[in-house]
């Protein structure tokens, strides 16, 4: 952070530095007055053309006259200086981020990627899965339900679902119409009902009603792909996994960690940049950043803590004030998505999301 590119707006007013050479020959008292005159560029030019003594006299005269006119002139000067300061600040902000790493070596990429992850870990020290769950079965079902909707909406819906169908056996034997009614708020509720009932039947028939803790078994279940499997493995079983969801895909491409578009290839490419033990937390950091700051349509670049490391800086809003207004969830002053967040989140000042129907 805080890195600046070349030409970071270090402006110097060179003409003002030439004048003191002439001023040195003038008397001390007059020099003070001449210095006052020096602030007005037109007067300075006139003075510079004349000899030192003429310059001193002229300066003294003009300084007296100028004092009468100083008020508006001073105001204008202050306004000009403020505008100049703001422009310099804006320029500095514009050039702050890194240039797209066209010929970045693998080692440099690994360093930058890990640094981004470290910075994000500081911004989101409590990053966690944003789906409420109490056991692997609940997390598996909640992950399937989270397609095409927010985790918040899922969290507001699953308490009713799990109260009525607490086990895979219960959900496998459920009346689809009743499940549809519960799942209606999550959208695509008929397809999701089919999925969760089919998945529960698979758990009962193939795994004795237990969620398996191995990737190869999880992906055997109906409707479970690698993304869902890694969410469950990483968060319910503590086995490292990279979750390549829509946020993850977008952000790693913006950061030029990989140019791959296929989720499995992205997973492999990004996995190669980090030790395995970092994978689960890395996934949380990236997804959290995508949800809160680096949005799909309007990333809040002006409020982004990793802007100096991001080749895509400027793809979104760069004005800090406007960017702040784009922040979502607790970064924008709203609670996170979990109704039952982990203690670390609450300890850091996070607030639980409201249940369904709450204002
Ligand atoms: S918000 Fe802007 S600067 Fe930050 S990661 Fe996204 S594109 Fe890069």
Automatic annotation (TrEMBL):
Q: Which SUPFAM superfamilies match?
A: DNA-glycosylase (SSF48150)
HhH-GPD domain boundaries: 145-292
CDD domains, per the entry = ENDO3c (cd00056)
Tell me, what is one Gene Ontology molecular-function annotation carried by this entry?
DNA binding
- Where are the compositionally biased (Basic residues) regions? 20-31
Q: Which UniProt keywords apply?
A: 4Fe-4S, DNA damage, DNA repair, DNA-binding, Glycosidase, Hydrolase, Iron, Iron-sulfur, Lyase, Metal-binding
Q: Report the domain of life of the source organism.
A: Bacteria
One GO biological process this protein is involved in is: base-excision repair, AP site formation
Q: Bias category Low complexity: which stretches?
A: 32-58
User: What are the start and end residues of every segment in region (Disordered)?
Assistant: 1-69, 332-359
The record lists [4Fe-4S] cluster as bound by 294, 301, 304, 310
List the residue ranges forming a coiled coil, or say none: none
- Provide the E.C. number(s) assigned to this enzyme: 4.2.99.18
> Which transformation does this protein catalyse, written as a reaction?
2'-deoxyribonucleotide-(2'-deoxyribose 5'-phosphate)-2'-deoxyribonucleotide-DNA = a 3'-end 2'-deoxyribonucleotide-(2,3-dehydro-2,3-deoxyribose 5'-phosphate)-DNA + a 5'-end 5'-phospho-2'-deoxyribonucleoside-DNA + H(+)
Q: How is the cofactor bound?
A: Binds 1 [4Fe-4S] cluster.
Q: Which InterPro entries match?
A: DNA_glycosylase (IPR011257), Endonuclease-III-like_CS2 (IPR004036), Endonuclease3_FeS-loop_motif (IPR003651), Endouclease-III_FeS-bd_BS (IPR004035), HhH-GPD_domain (IPR003265), HhH_base_excis_C (IPR023170), Nth (IPR005759)
Which of the seven top EC classes does this enzyme belong to? lyase
Q: Which cofactor does it need?
A: [4Fe-4S] cluster
Under the heading NCBIfam families, the entry gives: nth (TIGR01083)
Q: What does this protein do?
A: DNA repair enzyme that has both DNA N-glycosylase activity and AP-lyase activity. The DNA N-glycosylase activity releases various damaged pyrimidines from DNA by cleaving the N-glycosidic bond, leaving an AP (apurinic/apyrimidinic) site. The AP-lyase activity cleaves the phosphodiester bond 3' to the AP site by a beta-elimination, leaving a 3'-terminal unsaturated sugar and a product with a terminal 5'-phosphate.
* Record family assignment: Belongs to the Nth/MutY family.
What is the protein's given name? Endonuclease III
The species is Streptomyces brasiliensis
Please name the gene that encodes this protein. nth
């Amino acid at each position: 952070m805080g890195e600046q590119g070349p030409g970071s707006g270090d402006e110097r007013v060179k003409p003002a530095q030439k004048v003191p050479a002439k001023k040195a020959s003038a008397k001390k008292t007059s020099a003070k007055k001449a210095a006052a005159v020096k602030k007005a560029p037109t007067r300075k030019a006139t003075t510079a053309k004349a000899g030192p003594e003429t310059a001193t006299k002229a300066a003294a005269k003009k300084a007296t006259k100028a004092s009468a006119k100083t008020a508006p002139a001073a105001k204008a000067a202050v306004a000009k200086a403020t505008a100049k300061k703001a422009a310099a600040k804006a320029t500095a902000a514009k050039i702050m981020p890194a240039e797209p790493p066209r010929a970045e070596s693998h080692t440099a990429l690994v360093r930058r990627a890990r640094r981004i992850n470290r910075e994000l870990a500081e911004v989101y020290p409590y990053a966690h899965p944003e789906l409420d769950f109490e056991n692997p079965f609940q997390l598996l079902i909640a992950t399937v339900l989270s397609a095409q909707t927010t985790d918040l909406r899922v969290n507001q819906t699953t308490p009713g679902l799990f109260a009525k169908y607490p086990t895979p056996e219960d959900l496998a034997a459920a009346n689809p119409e009743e499940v549809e009614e519960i799942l209606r708020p999550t959208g695509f509720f008929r397809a999701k009902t089919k999925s969760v009932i089919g998945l529960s039947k698979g758990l009962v028939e193939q795994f004795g009603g237990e969620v398996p803790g191995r990737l190869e078994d999880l992906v055997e279940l109906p409707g479970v792909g690698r993304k869902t499997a890694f969410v469950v493995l990483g968060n319910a079983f503590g086995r490292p996994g990279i979750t390549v969801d829509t946020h993850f895909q977008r952000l790693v491409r913006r950061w030029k960690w990989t140019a791959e578009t296929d989720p499995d290839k992205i997973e492999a490419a990004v996995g190669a940049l980090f030790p395995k033990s970092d994978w689960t937390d890395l996934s949380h950091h990236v997804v959290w950043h995508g949800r809160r700051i680096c949005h799909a349509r309007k990333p809040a670049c002006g409020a982004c803590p990793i802007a100096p490391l991001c080749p895509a800086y400027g793809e979104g809003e760069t004005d800090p004030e406007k960017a702040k207004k784009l922040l979502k969830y607790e970064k924008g002053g709203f609670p996170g998505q979990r109704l039952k967040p982990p203690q670390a989140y609450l300890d850091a000042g996070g607030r639980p999301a409201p249940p369904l129907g709450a204002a």
